[in-house]
Amino acid sequence: MNFSFLPKYLGFFISGTGYTLLLSALTVVFGLIGGLTLSLMKTSNNKILKAFAVSYIEFVRGTPLLIQLYIVYYGIQNIPMLAAGVVAMSLNSAAYIAEIIRAGIGAVDKGQKEAARSLGMPTFLTFKEIIIPQAMKNILPALGNEFIVLIKESAIVSVIGIHDLMYNTDVVRGNTFIAFEPLIVAALIYFVLTFTLSKVLGKIERRMTVSD
To answer: Residue 157 CB: number of other CB atoms within 10 A?
Structure first.
């Protein structure tokens, strides 16, 4: 095993990790917003909104993320690489998060919605104050898994030139002519990121369970 390259190229790995975290964080935020919107559209009584949400979710879940990334990057003129990565991954993640949230909403006791309606509470306020908070507690483990998957899947953006961890790892491999060891370093960094996130989410989940 030859890790002699590490002192010289440590900055490459740190910089790439920063881009990976930035990309993942932005994707989580926009994916959650998009997923929540799609789930509400899919559960609404409006046939047009419901049809759009169903069609979108089925299309995104039925096509590879790589193709979606290329469609965004080459389909939108002059879009920055990082923006293309965030948009493509957010649109992809939103479809999966929408199904997670929809399942969470479905798990909430229907009596709560009926009780809010009997009190004259508007539908939007019912979802905002009663349904969504309870659904979020139910789906936290599934959402946590989705966020962990996002960190790992973010490696795919290296194909369009974003200097994330995977891209910089390939740069190190090309500069040093060492093919194997840089991959081990990258794998360990990804593991640390995902393991740390899983522990943090687990602690949050336990606290929410205790609060109930």
So the answer is: 28
Whole-angstrom distance, CA of residue 90 vs CA of residue 28: 7
26 by Cβ neighbours in 10 Å (0-12 / 13-18 / 19+) ranks as middle
Is residue 124 situated within a structural domain? yes
Total number of domains constituting the chain: 1
Residue 1 placed within a domain: no
The whole-angstrom separation of Cα 6 and Cα 184 is: 11
| Spatial contact of 146 and 93, defined as CB atoms under 8 Å apart | yes
Please indicate, yes or no, if residue 109 is contained in any of the structural domains. Answer: yes
CATH number at residue 175: 1.10.3720.10
Tell me the pLDDT tens digit for each residue of 139-187: 888 888 888 999 999 999 999 999 999 999 999 999 999 999 999 999 9
Q: Are 205 and 144 in contact (CB under 8 A)?
A: yes
* Domain that residue 153 falls in: 9-211
In angstroms, rounded to a whole number, what is the distance separating the alpha carbons of residues 30 and 94?
8
* Cβ pair 97, 146 in contact under 8 A: yes
